[in-house]
Design brief:
It is built from ten helices and twelve strands. It starts with 6 loop residues before the first helix and ends in a 16-residue tail after the last strand. Helix 1 runs antiparallel to helix 2 (about 65-80). It is of the alpha+beta class. About 55% of the residues lie in helices and about 15% in strands. The strands form three sheets. The protein has a five-stranded antiparallel beta sheet, sandwiched between helices. It has a five-stranded mixed beta sheet with strand order 7-9-10-12-11, covered by helices on one side. It folds into three domains: about 1-180, Beta-Lactamase; about 240-330; about 340-480, Heat Shock Protein 90, CATH 3.30.565. It is rod-shaped and about 175 Å long.
Length: about 500
Amino acid sequence: MFRDLSLAYKTPLRISVLVVITAVLVTAALVARERDELRRDLIGHSENVARVLTKTLVEPMVHDDAWRAFEIINTPFQATLGDAVSQAAEIVLVLDTKQRVYVSTRPPDYPMLSDPARTDPEYATVQQAVAEMRTVEPMAMMSPISNKMYMVAPIVADGVRLGTLVMGYPSSIFTQRFLGLIQRAGLVTAIVLAVLLPAGLYFGRRIAQPLVDLAGAMGKVGPHLPEDLQYVPSHKGRDEIGRLGLEFQRMLSELRGKEALEKQMIASDRLAAIGRLTAGIAHEINNPLGGMLNAINTFKRHGSADPLTTRTLSLVERGLLQIKETVAALLVEAKVESHPLTRQDIEDTRTLVLPDAQAKDANFIWDNEIIGALPLPSTLTRQILINLLLNAVQAIERGGRVQCRMGLADDALQIEVSNDGDHIPSEKLHYLFEPFSLLSHDGHGLGLWVTYQIVQQMGGDIHVRSEPHETAFTVVLPLKKEHEPEPCTDAVPG
């Protein structure tokens, strides 16, 4: 279950656990060190007290002054010496050379000349350690029975051992101080965790967030890229995460380009197939159509002049001529020989379309940047421009806007015709250039089809962009390299 948890939570949790483990280990190491320091301090202080007492007890024991010895061993525990360790000894015994009690801080429990081992069996171990001592320095020992600590120090005068000083400390002396040390360490650890845990959570989230965003964006990638899929790397570094985000962003761009190219290829293949089909049908229709028109023409010249027959044949002839015009529109050929395109040719198209625009009270915006002659067939280029302009005029409402821009860029003629007519839904744009399309604004839906065929045969591209309040057709026609533009001296109409 933890493996499936999001990195947005997993990374901060791991950092938090690491912070807690580190804090606990560091605290445990510090507590262990302080415990050892506490033990050494206690033993060292006890040794110092034992040295002072043994030197002080020499004179009373030489003169056999038990009362004076009793006062000496009680003075440190009755007076405040400013040290809690010296006051922590629960009993002090002075043993004679026979290891009997000479004096004690608790006479009722350990009377003079008594065997301390009879009162407390632990002293048997102490007596054995006293008997085995071969040094005059104080010695600390732990009782194997109750874990009490005893400080044993011989009382020596001029090399003669007069007795032994025994100081007993309760086992709780370490526990109480150790618990106090743990409480202080725990408080410090809690403060450290209170500072580090939020910081760990914050930085954990910051570390994981770029990967979370990347995973979320990758999860949206399917057979088709969503149009609203946008990915901007939140991590701008050049490390592995930054490079991964940049590579994914580049991959998205390439996938979008590939998808657009696939759509364009599919549309081109579909239009090419439709073109071949319509061209074949048109050729098949032309043969009998021409024969029927010839027959009607012959009859009108040499037949009877019956009014009803003449009127009927005129109706049939107009219908056949309409069919002929429609079929002719389907037979687009880019082999028309014409002079290079000039600025005057372009201005002529404006003159031709202007009456239609004025009929709709259109705001006709014209921007022609072409000055010299261009190596493009003028007839076909003008046909493209006229079709787009008429289609734009037909698309707008009365008083609408039609705008046309023409200029050179990247060795190509760029034509953009836009209008503020009805918005074309994106799902219908793919069928816009098909013949007899219901989306077309002309009578038979062949204007855009013819425009597309001419553009393709001239090696150019045509694109459509439609959004609310603006639909724009952009045509790019590459210039022929073997011809250089020539200056034009034609007059430009005002």
